[in-house]
Specification:
Layout (H helix, E strand, L loop, with lengths): L4 H21 L9 H25 L2 H31 L4 H32 L3 H17 L14 H9 L12 E4 L2 E4 L1 H25 L5 H13 L1 H8 L9 H22 L19 H52 L1
Antiparallel strand pairs: 1-2
């Protein structure tokens, strides 16, 4: 896929315009984002992403469009994983609801910049070193195993500040309380950072760690840097509205970590198979390609969507079953307490 410079510039320019519109409309006045408002923005961003994919289909080809959609869906689902950590960070720092969307906007802008750098480095590495696909593939399988064992979304999950936020606290004295939407303030002539600044650092550094997983994953679906960047950008654009829309539903996606682990493991195996199919390493089959099966983008897209649907349905059925069992248990306890109370009253009589 040959992407002219003007297409790159137009895409980046369009993303900047979208951010500017979001900034002017949503952040014009600090407020608590409602579910209705969040839903409208999520639909808008998903629609824009789909239209972009349709444009690729029309002006490029179906294979490129399929790679874009597979990458977009994967990155979007991995972004939901990010939301769990964002929720934990917001709770740990008791961020006021009216300022949460500002924090998420800064986190998304930082994520776009950092992922742009990661994509450039990853594309350069893949073009120069064929063995990078082996590394990416094994890393994704390792990440999948680790993720499958995680307790994603657990109520017991606590946030522990990383080295970057601890370094920021040493660099700037931090106030105990929030000062509106200020990230810095002056008290008795001395400059202080506010907790809002530390939260932004925490969100940004957390997304940096997520990029380490997501960038290899999408390179396993397409080697075209433009599609990698576009899929990442559109997946991130509606992320903060998705945060407010899902809300408590995040806790109900109990099997999300397993679903994401399956997807990452699938992409990891796919990458290793492709690396073996085009092998040039001298210590593997004498530097000759191996006749192994490869996975096309249609199969990849089907597996990714199928796993996500099964994961979502299974999660909701599981949480509904647990809710019903807890409700029945609560009703039984109340009934038992009522009977005991009646018996005690009858005895006293």
């Amino acid at each position: 896929m040959n992407v002219p410079l003007w297409v790159w510039l137009a895409t980046v320019g369009g993303l900047i315009v979208l951010l500017a519109i979001d900034l002017v409309i949503v952040d014009r006045k600090p407020h608590e984002v409602t579910i209705g408002e969040a839903a409208r923005w999520v639909v808008f961003y998903v629609a824009v992403a789909v239209l972009f994919g349709a444009g690729i289909w029309m002006f490029a080809d179906g294979t490129s469009a399929g790679e874009y959609f597979a990458g977009y869906i994967t990155e979007y689902s991995l972004s939901v994983d990010n939301l769990f950590i964002f929720l934990v960070i917001m709770s740990a720092f008791s961020v006021p609801a009216i300022h949460q969307h500002e924090v998420l906007l800064v986190g998304i802008v930082l994520a776009l910049i950092l992922r742009g750098i990661f994509i450039a480095v990853g594309a350069a590495a893949i073009s120069q070193f064929s063995w990078v696909f082996y590394v990416f593939g094994v890393f994704l399988v390792y990440t999948a195993v680790k993720l499958s064992r995680s307790n994603l979304g657990s109520e017991d999950e606590e946030y522990e500040e990383n080295r970057i936020t601890k370094w920021a606290r040493k660099l700037f004295p931090v106030t105990d309380d929030y000062h509106g939407n200020k990230v810095f303030t002056r008290i008795d002539g001395k400059r202080f950072a506010t907790p809002l600044f530390i939260v932004m650092i925490a969100i940004g550094s957390a997304d940096l760690m997520f990029a380490v997983d997501s960038i290899p994953a999408i390179f396993g679906l397409t080697k075209e840097p433009f599609l990698v960047f576009a899929a990442n950008a559109f997946a991130l654009m509606g992320l903060r509205q998705l945060y407010f829309l899902l809300g408590g539903l995040l806790k109900r996606l109990v099997y999300l970590s397993i679903g994401l682990a399956v997807i990452l493991a699938f992409i990891g195996v796919k990458m290793v198979l492709e690396a073996l199919h085009t092998n040039a390493l001298p210590f593997i089959n004498g530097g000759q390609p191996l006749n192994v099966p490869t996975v096309n983008i249609a199969v990849s897209l089907t597996v990714i969507v199928g796993v996500l649907v099964i994961t979502a349905v299974a999660s909701l059925l599981r949480t509904r079953h647990v809710d019903r069992r807890e409700a029945a248990s609560s009703a039984s306890d109340e009934s038992g307490n009522g009977s005991a109370s009646d018996q005690a009253t009858s005895t006293r009589s």
